[in-house]
Amino acid sequence: MKDQNPFETHYCEYDAWFDSYDKIYRSELLAVQELLPKNGNWVEIGVGSGRFASKLGIKTGVEPAEGIATLAMKRGVTVLKGRAEELPLDDESIDAAFLITTLCFVDELGRTFTEAFRVIRPGGAVIVAFIPQDSPFGELYGRIAGEDRFYRLATFYTKENVFTAMTQAGFLIDRTVQTLTGSPEQANDAVEAPTEGHAKGSFIVVRANKP
Ligand SMILES: C[S@@+](CC[C@H](N)C(=O)[O-])C[C@H]1O[C@@H](n2cnc3c(N)ncnc32)[C@H](O)[C@@H]1O
To answer: Looking at ligand 1, which residue's alpha carbon is closest to its atom 10?
Structure first.
């Protein structure tokens, strides 16, 4: 129901979070920037308010909620209405697809990656940024989700869940980077530079290639 979807009704509240937690946002942006692929036809799936797309040079987004999509469009992103599980995109038409903190909101994890695989051309990449269930932020959000209008809809996946779903869809994992490696309480004190791997971070970025 549209009037029960907070990304339709309370999207300004969602978007304002990035101003309140600017150093977390900048740490996350740096981590995604570290794994940007070659230029080409890029799309962000679940583009939300376009906070990442507009800074990363992603010109097109897919988004099911028309409310939050208005903010992405104001930030200059072209938004196609649609869902990760049924992308409004042609086969092998995309050089890189991004999923940034959207995985926990999709309805079907496996279908999300098989659809991404379908639309990405051979040699292209999927870039996934997520908060793992098995991380300090993932544990915190899991605890407070019941009282949060956005996270009560979320399903947090472990790193293993995500890597397995990507691999099962046919992607080859190329590289991971991480940020927000300290405690959630201190994460907004300073911008953190990304580091290799995914053992410690609460925000993990994975780049995987379609052979
Ligand atoms: C936490 S927001 C992330 C938005 C943006 N990627 C960002 O990082 O700011 C999650 C977004 O996923 C969208 N979403 C929910 N279900 C989806 C689905 N099945 N397919 C694609 N996007 C979905 C929501 O409407 C929302 O805009």
So the answer is: 102
